[in-house]
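REQUEST FORM: STRUCTURE PREDICTION
Request ID: SP-0412
Submitted by: Lab K.M.
Chain count: 1
Length (residues): 84
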Amino acid sequence: MNRPDWPGVEPWDAEWAAERAAEALRYLGTHYPECLAALRVLDVYETAANEAAVRGGREAYLEALRGYMKAGRNAALRIRRGAA
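STATUS: Completed
RESULT:
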């Protein structure tokens, strides 16, 4: 989502954001593939990332993606413990 030029506001780079989101999904798929079957538990983190993107905040966006990856890891670990 690109913003118009506003004083003091950095333009949003949608391609950069998409690359970071793809990296997060690749990380989860590689290290915690079980969580990909339980994506509903990640909804709140996906929403936070989308809201950060709308605001154009790169740091907030990256923090939301980190939360997304942590939640995915936690979901996968719960699944693994249940299978053990």
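NOTES: The first helix runs from residue 14 to 31.
Reviewed by: T.R.
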